[in-house]
Specification:
The complex is a heterodimer of chains A (235) and B (360). Chain A has 235 residues and is mainly α. Chain A has a single domain, classed as MetI-like fold (Orthogonal Bundle). Chain B has 2 domains: 251 residues, Rossmann fold (3-Layer(aba) Sandwich); 93 residues, Alpha-Beta Plaits. Chain B has 12 helices and 16 strands. In chain B, the strands form 3 sheets. In chain B, strands 2-1-4-5-6-7 form a 6-stranded antiparallel sheet, with helices on one face. A 6-stranded mixed sheet of chain B has the order 8-9-10-3-11-12, sandwiched between helices. Chain B has a 4-stranded antiparallel sheet with strand order 14-15-13-16. In chain B, a hairpin with a 2-residue loop joins strand 11 and strand 12. The longest helix of chain B is centred in the middle third of the chain and has 17 residues. Classes of the chains: A mainly alpha (235), B alpha+beta (360). Chains A and B meet through helix 8 and helix 9 of A and helix 2 and helix 5 of B.
Chain lengths: 235, 360
């Protein structure tokens, strides 16, 4: 087995430790930045939904600020954002390199994207449902969790999938400026040392991971459309 | 009882102002089924939403038995409890209390698609301090009330329109409100489902002494279940009264139009428009509306015998409204000018409302 693998990708097998470290670094960046993005993006997306004109907690000032900041960070290309945020990253986590240093720009890059996606997903909830809940005396928090988030689950799963996939792309770019991970492994050991098999394996690994995410996302979205994920019968 | 006084509401868009309601006064007695009719844009949706404050009026007051009074003046809303006492600024808490006393159903049902029938009906019961068992038994009780017990675990996407509206009604009644607001609840339903939903509403009105305020653009709905009706046009209530009175003796042009569309008497306008051959004579065309006292008499043959005129029946319609017969006839009266006039006088003397229809 090892021999066979060594014959089709000799350089990868020569750097297995580096390769494993790179995969681990990418996984760390993906999970930590993804987790933070999920939380912040959801909060800002909900904030935009409820504070917009005609929303359940209309607030012009909050809406304008969140809307503006989201637009600003969305319009900066990620590679520029990476270097632009170096001073802030040092301030927050103490370093601008490695996995730790990559988290901050990754979050800044992904949150505005995810915020917009959440906003769109929530905008797909029929305003009539919100009105009905209001008419039943439901509180604002109740409407957010029991109507907006609850009814938008399939769409939210779809946008989480899209964001997760684009976040993988961002982690490889962060790799290019010293964050480690599969991206920098492909550039430093593949491209720079002329080891095409390393580049190929990196592509395959990413392809498999992205396909896996997409499949899980599609399945969950389909299973939650017009029904609960875990259905419990009464009686 | 619900009393709306001097309700006004204007929508301000950047380029224009739209007056939705202007000085509207309405009083609905407990246990009544009260219909509000009008074309789209007449302000009826806005008016019914002022009752549960989904729309905030610019001015006016809303008094509801068992709750108190909300008054809007100078852009601020104040709440006065029913027991009297200090009037205070209206808060979210007051509104929640108000809305739990008022059920509401909608044209498009507005059920949560990802929740089962059970969870949809349980929505207003959860987080109100009730135990799981209490919620379960209340939901099952409500399902029995709307005759949908077998659908407890179904999702809305598996139900027909009529069944969805039944779930919505059960949900609206979960907290035992005394008042149900209905916003075009049957407008998206087929005729069979419409009939069964109207019957259910009428049953609930009788069984629970539920006050129902319903808005609709269909006079047939008013005719089948309402006790009183208000007709709205351009943000005003232009006519209001007992359903039988309004149908037998409509005053405003718009009311006449609504009444005619629901009775089939509106057909005469089509005949005139299409210059139908049945109207080919210079005889006088009149519309007669009979009421409870005159419908039983054989007036047509009576007048033709008595005055020696020919009475040619073009359209006829008799129906029961609140158990009273209401009839309408469109006839051509042929004879000498004098006799025709005498016939009309005679009919009017016998409690028949006679209107000469102009052809042209």
């Amino acid at each position: 087995m090892a021999e066979w693998l060594a014959s089709i990708m000799p350089n990868v097998m020569a750097y297995t430790d580096k390769f494993a470290d790179s995969c681990l670094a990418t996984a760390q960046m993906f999970l930590i930045a993804g987790g933070l993005t999920f939380v912040f993006g959801a909060v800002f997306g909900i904030l935009l939904t409820v504070t917009r004109p005609g929303g359940i907690a209309e607030n012009r000032v909050v809406y304008r600020i969140v809307d503006l900041v989201t637009n600003i960070f969305r319009s900066i290309p990620f590679v520029i954002l990476l270097i632009f945020l170096i001073p802030l990253t040092r301030l927050i986590v103490g370093t601008a390199i490695g996995v730790k240093g990559a988290i901050v720009p990754l979050v800044f890059g992904a949150v505005p994207f995810f915020t917009r996606q959440v906003e769109v997903a929530l905008a797909g909830v029929d305003p009539g449902k919100v009105e009905a809940a209001t008419a039943m005396g439901s509180s604002k928090l109740g409407i957010i969790f029991r109507v907006y988030l609850h009814e938008a689950v399939p769409d939210l799963i779809r946008v989480v999938t899209v964001t997760a996939i684009s976040l993988i792309g961002l982690t490889t770019m962060a790799g290019a400026v010293g964050a480690g991970g599969i991206g920098s492994f492909a550039i430093n050991y593949g491209q720079n040392l002329h080891h095409q098999d390393i580049v190929n394996v990196c592509v395959v690994v990413l392809l498999v991971f992205v396909s896996l995410l997409q499949t899980i996302g599609n399945t969950l979205a389909r299973r939650t459309t017009n029904r609960a994920l875990f259905h419990k019968n009464i009686k | 009882m619900i009393e709306l006084s001097h309700i006004s509401k204007t929508y301000v868009a950047p380029d224009k102002k739209v007056i939705a309601l202007e000085d509207v006064n309405i009083r609905v007695e407990a246990g009544q089924v009260y219909g509000i009719v009008g074309y789209s844009g007449a302000g009826k949706s806005t008016l019914v939403r002022c009752i549960n404050f989904l729309e905030r009026p610019d001015a006016g007051s809303i008094r509801i038995d068992g709750f108190g009074t909300i008054e809007v003046r100078g852009g601020n809303a104040f709440y006065t409890p029913e027991s009297g006492g200090q009037s205070v600024r209206l808060t979210e808490t007051h509104l929640k209390a108000l809305r739990r006393d008022l059920g509401m159903i909608f044209q498009h049902f507005n059920l949560l698609d990802r929740d089962t029938v059970f969870n949809n009906i349980a929505y207003p019961l959860k987080y109100t301090g009730r135990s799981k068992e209490e919620i379960r038994s209340r939901v099952l009780e409500l399902l029995e009330l709307v005759d949908l017990s077998d659908k407890v675990n179904a999702y809305p996407s598996e139900l027909s329109g009529g069944q969805k509206q039944r779930v919505a009604i059960a949900r609206a009644l979960a907290n035992n409100p005394k008042i149900l607001l209905s916003d075009e609840a049957t407008s998206a339903l087929d005729p069979d489902a419409t009939e069964s939903i109207l019957k259910l509403l009428k049953d609930l009105n009788r069984k629970l002494n539920l006050t129902i305020v319903l808005i609709t653009h269909e006079m047939a709905v008013v005719k089948s279940i309402c006790d009183r009706v208000a007709v709205m046009e351009n943000g005003h209530v232009v006519e209001e009264g007992d359903v039988y009175e309004v149908f037998s003796n409509p005053q405003q042009a718009i009311t006449k139009k609504f009444v005619n569309t629901s009775s089939g008497m509106g057909q005469i306008n089509r005949l005139i428009r299409e210059n139908s051959s049945v109207l080919n004579s210079d005889a006088t065309l009149v519309q007669c509306t009979f009421s409870k006292d005159s419908v039983g008499e054989a007036l047509v043959s009576d007048v033709s015998r008595r005055f020696g005129v020919n009475v040619n029946i073009i359209l006829g319609n008799v129906e029961l409204l609140r158990g009273n017969p209401l009839g309408g006839l469109v006839v051509l009266i042929d004879g000498e000018e004098e006799k025709r006039r005498a016939v009309i006088e005679y009919l009017r003397a016998h409690d028949v409302r006679v209107e000469v229809i102009e052809r042209g």
